[in-house]
Design a protein that fits this description.
With about 210 residues, the protein is mainly α. The chain has six helices and two strands, in the order H-H-E-H-H-E-H-H. The protein has helices at about 1-20, 90-95, 135-140, 160-165, 175-180, 205-210; strands at about 135, 175. The chain has a two-stranded antiparallel sheet with strand order 1-2. The longest helix has 17 residues, at about 1-20. The chain is globular. The model is unreliable at about 1-20 (pLDDT under 50). The structure holds heme C (4 copies). One heme C binds near residues 181 and 194. One heme C binds near residues 22, 45, 46 and 184.
Amino acid sequence: MKKILLTIALVALMTSTAFAAITGSKHDFSGAAYATATGNICIFCHTPHNSDTTVANAPLWNHEVTAATYTLYSGQGTLNATMAQPSGISKLCLSCHDGTVAIDSFGGATGTTNITGAALLGTDLSNDHPVSFLYDAALNTADSGIYNPTTQASGLGSTIDVDLLFGATAGSKTLECASCHDVHRSDETVAFQPMLRKSNTASALCLTCHNK
Ligand code: HEC
Ligand code: HEC
Ligand code: HEC
Ligand code: HEC
């Protein structure tokens, strides 16, 4: 009985801590040729001191930031949100995923290993879900096909605005790459691939915001 309880406790502990961990994730670069001898796994993206503050709301950023100009999504021409160049934390993702900056360009060094394969989005974002635009209550008024982010539950504890959007002002935040992806996610079961914030089984992630 004790053993069973212990197992249950351990499983509970594992499910609560494996969630949102870098170790073992696709973003764990500690085994890469360019990894530092210390085995530090945060250093490719973050530093406790002398961080790059050029990107608003960037979390103690330690990776060279992209300077690319992107081709933006235009959609059906019915999109209510005004599209602008990626800003905020989406720019941080694109600093590896647009392929213009090497993965190992961190801590002031210039690297040589660029991203390849399916994870390379490039600088043409016209075929990608739009990012870096204001998603507020007014957008829901203009487009009833999406929920009001300030009142609609995200399924992750609070509202879409609180759990999935980025910015300092409640009710006036932006949708970013990290609205859908959890950059620190190591416990990817199929439903959470690739590094999704919540399960996308039966398109649950999409239906969090889209009223379809
Ligand atoms: C591949 C790059 C990358 C690595 C490696 C990485 N992070 Fe992050 N981290 C990000 C990005 C991008 C954000 C902003 C997006 C977000 O908040 O989801 C972020 C946000 C954060 C935040 C602020 C938001 C939050 O989730 O609390 C903290 C704290 C953080 N990271 C800590 C860490 C620590 C500690 C490590 C190492 C164990 C680490 N990160 C490794 C890219 C990375
Ligand atoms: C330091 C460089 C770097 C940063 C910053 C970074 N990534 Fe990545 N990311 C990578 C690399 C390298 C891979 C692994 C690609 C592979 O396995 O081929 C990866 C993998 C991924 C994957 C999984 C792809 C798959 O096929 O399973 C996703 C999703 C992803 N990144 C999204 C993001 C998002 C969203 C952000 C910002 C919030 C971000 N990344 C920031 C370098 C980075
Ligand atoms: C609206 C939600 C959403 C947004 C915003 C979003 N993604 Fe994704 N992303 C997904 C989903 C869902 C998939 C899996 C698609 C599939 O399997 O067909 C994915 C796939 C990926 C992959 C893996 C591609 C592959 O084929 O292996 C990478 C890398 C990635 N996204 C990075 C990013 C980056 C960088 C941004 C911001 C510029 C971003 N995503 C914005 C939902 C999103
Ligand atoms: C965090 C909220 C959120 C999530 C999650 C999300 N979307 Fe969106 N999506 C939006 C918003 C907001 C818009 C902009 C709508 C507008 O301006 O009218 C949008 C735009 C779109 C558009 C473009 C519509 C047009 O008029 O061109 C499509 C298509 C779309 N999303 C599909 C998806 C799919 C598929 C998924 C799941 C992989 C997804 N979205 C996940 C919030 C989200």
